[in-house]
């Protein structure tokens, strides 16, 4: 019988903490763990988790409580409590009866006679088992919302890490684009050019310092959150009586840790008008007619921006619309030489990609290997990002709305994008590997 009981208890024990399950979950590989133990063993929430038992990758992100396991654990722990209540050490020294009542106000154990005495009669009290379950459920509810704070901080930390790593590369590309624009479009404005570049350098350094401070703050907050989450887990694992006596102000302590959550820095350079830029482009402006074409494929980037698509969803999860519309230029307007400028109205939408692509890409409808694009992407309803291809690079500029200008310099091997309404440079893709034939392209899913 003892052997059977031992096997039964082993089946109710988490392999990570070696305690009875609290809020047990079962992964898609069939193994069960305490929810907090599993979460704490997940080092990077932006990656797939792995089962500590079989090492298989776990596709799930959200887990439901295994109610059957939870109820079985409750039966076992109630039995353990019943044995404790029978111990001589748990008897009231006045009435010599077992202490079975928990007083909320004084956080003490009482026998039935003490609980109705003049000293405790007006206090709120209930059975030890009932009180322990109530406190444990409060802990689990707190831990659930607390873990969301951990996830939020990890997401923000990943954003800061990516931004910090790419910031200097981005600033260098913008500096070269601005310098080239002044040399080509406003060679008689050396003073404005110098002031523009100096302003860029000051602003870039200030933002970079903010990014490093923010990353350090989020890293520190990550450690504080995990330590506090571990404390909540350990409190939850305590036997019923010890949990009640040690509970104290742990919930208030956890609330304090969640205060002042650091937020990502708004890494965005101020857009500055370059004298003569729009005048020069307007002289080259042409009207293009886009021919409609529907395709079930989606604009897709590889490399550092894996899984970015037109219509990208939140938290890095690609949003796949039912049909992505692709518009491309007719054969008569294929570019093989020269300088060309045109404008496209993207309105207030966020799921678009525009630029030029090599002729073979249009015919074969393949991924963007030989396409030079500016893409608008929404991570949430309130946050938008702008990317370029070849190479994939985040553009830390205000999100363009309305008309976006595209300047193709075939011999110069470059594609420049401008914000028409603000008359500012968005970015320039230089050293492009053009094929003999280029076409203007607009891809979108919700226009």
UniProtKB/TrEMBL annotation:
Source organism (scientific name): Pipistrellus nathusii
Residue span(s) of domain B box-type: 87-128
Cross-referenced SMART domains: RING
Domain B30.2/SPRY: 268-447
Family: Belongs to the TRIM/RBCC family.
Protein name per the record: Uncharacterized protein
RING-type domain ranges (all copies): 14-55
Pfam families linked to this entry: SPRY (PF00622), zf-C3HC4 (PF00097)
Keywords, comma-separated and alphabetical: Metal-binding, Zinc, Zinc-finger
């Amino acid at each position: 019988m003892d052997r059977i009981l031992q096997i039964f208890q082993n089946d109710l024990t988490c392999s990570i903490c070696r305690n009875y399950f609290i809020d047990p979950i079962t992964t898609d590989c069939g193994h069960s763990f305490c929810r907090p133990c599993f979460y704490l063993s997940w080092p990077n929430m932006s990656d797939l988790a792995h089962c500590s038992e079989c090492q298989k990758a776990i596709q799930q992100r959200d887990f439901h409580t295994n109610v059957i396991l939870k109820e079985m654990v409750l039966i076992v722990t109630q039995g353990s409590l019943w044995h404790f209540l029978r111990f001589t050490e748990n008897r009231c020294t006045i009435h010599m009866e077992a202490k079975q009542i928990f007083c909320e106000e004084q956080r003490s154990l009482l026998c039935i006679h003490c609980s109705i005495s003049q000293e405790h009669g007006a206090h709120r009290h209930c059975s030890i088992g009932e009180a322990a379950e109530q406190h444990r459920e409060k802990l689990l509810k707190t831990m659930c919302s607390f873990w969301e704070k951990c996830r939020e901080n990890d997401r923000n930390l990943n954003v800061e890490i990516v931004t910090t790593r790419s910031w200097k590369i981005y600033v260098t590309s913008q500096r070269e684009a601005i310098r080239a624009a002044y040399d080509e479009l406003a060679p008689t404005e050396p003073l404005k050019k110098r002031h523009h570049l100096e302003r860029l350098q000051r602003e870039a350094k200030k933002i970079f310092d903010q990014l490093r401070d923010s990353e350090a703050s989020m890293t520190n907050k990550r450690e504080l959150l995990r330590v506090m989450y571990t404390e909540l887990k350990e409190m939850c694992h305590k036997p019923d009586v010890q949990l009640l006596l040690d509970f104290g102000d742990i919930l208030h302590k956890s609330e304090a840790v969640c205060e002042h959550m650091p937020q990502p820095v708004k890494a965005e350079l101020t857009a500055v008008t370059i004298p003569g830029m729009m005048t020069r482009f307007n002289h080259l402006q042409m009207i293009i007619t886009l021919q409609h074409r529907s395709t079930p494929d989606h604009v897709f980037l590889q490399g550092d921006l894996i899984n970015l698509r037109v219509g990208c969803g939140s938290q890095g999860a690609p949003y796949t619309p039912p049909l992505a519309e692709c518009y491309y230029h007719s054969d008569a307007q294929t570019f093989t030489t020269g300088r060309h400028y045109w404008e496209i109205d993207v309105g207030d939408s966020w799921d678009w990609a525009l630029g030029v692509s090599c002729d073979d890409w249009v015919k074969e409808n393949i991924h963007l290997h030989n396409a030079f694009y500016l893409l608008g992407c929404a991570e949430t309803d309130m946050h938008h990002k702008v990317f370029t291809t070849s190479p994939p690079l985040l553009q830390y500029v205000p999100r363009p709305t309305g008309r976006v200008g595209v300047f193709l310099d075939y011999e110069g091997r470059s594609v420049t994008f401008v914000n028409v309404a603000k008359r500012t440079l968005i970015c320039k893709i230089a050293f492009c590997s053009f094929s003999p034939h280029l076409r203007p392209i607009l891809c979108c899913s919700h226009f």
